[in-house]
Amino acid sequence: MNWTALVGSLYSAQYTAAERLAEPGLSMPPNPPASVEAVAAAEQRLGVWFDAEFRQFLLTCDGWSRYGTVQLFGVGDFAAGEKWRRDSACAQRYFDTGASGTLIVPEGYRLVLVGKTLAAQRFIVMLFPTGPGIGPAACWDCMAGIDLRYPSFGVWAEFEASAISYALGEEIADRRCPQ
After folding, report:
1. I need a labelling partner for 78 at 20 to 30 A (CA). Which of 6, 21, 40, 123 fits?
2. What is the distance between the alpha carbons of residues 104 and 106, in angstroms, rounded to a whole number?
């Protein structure tokens, strides 16, 4: 996964759309990269092992307040930030009440909130192993009982970036066409 290319192209698409639509809120730059030490500290606080792909994302951009409509949390947020804690509690209630029928956390894994939308009850969560050699991580995009599993955070991020770019292009096209 080339995170630099993906992050750069998505930010460019969002920035271009924000300029054309005269809506600066559509475009927020990604956060600067996290340090290796900060990533390790976040893993320790959470009691998990990030997979190489998610770790590389954090070393490229330490979260992003506007990945389309999703806020992706950075290492300083994980198990430490107040908003992350509130949103994690909300996500946990979602899973505890049975709204999610498909996501089951297996033994040796921990569910970690990595992203959340502002408007709807949509959570991006990762299942990370709590120790080395337990197994691979997985990414879930959860909303209103529809929980979509992705084999990795990178697969989710690429799919989401494509959807965001398409939606921005449609918005620009719609505003150009008379009603």
Report:
1. 6
2. 6
Residue type present at position 159 = F
In degrees, rounded to 5, the angle at the alpha carbon of residue 55 between the alpha carbons of residues 54 and 60 is 95
Length of the chain: 179
122-129/109-117 β-pairing: antiparallel
CA distance 97 to 121: 14
| Residue 100 contacts residue 142 (beta carbons within 8 Å) | yes
Which secondary-structure segment (H or E) carries 129?
A: strand 122-129
For 83-120, the pLDDT digits (tens) are 999 999 988 888 887 666 677 888 999 999 999 997 66
Between the CA of residue 129 and those of 77, 111, 122, what are the distances in Å?
A: 19, 9, 23
Q: Indicate the angle between helix axes 52-60 and 3-21, nearest 10 degrees.
A: 50
Q: Could you tell me how far CA 114 lies from the centroid of its own chain?
A: 5
pLDDT digit string (tens) for 2-31? 999 989 988 888 888 888 778 777 778 999
**Three-class SS state of 107:** coil
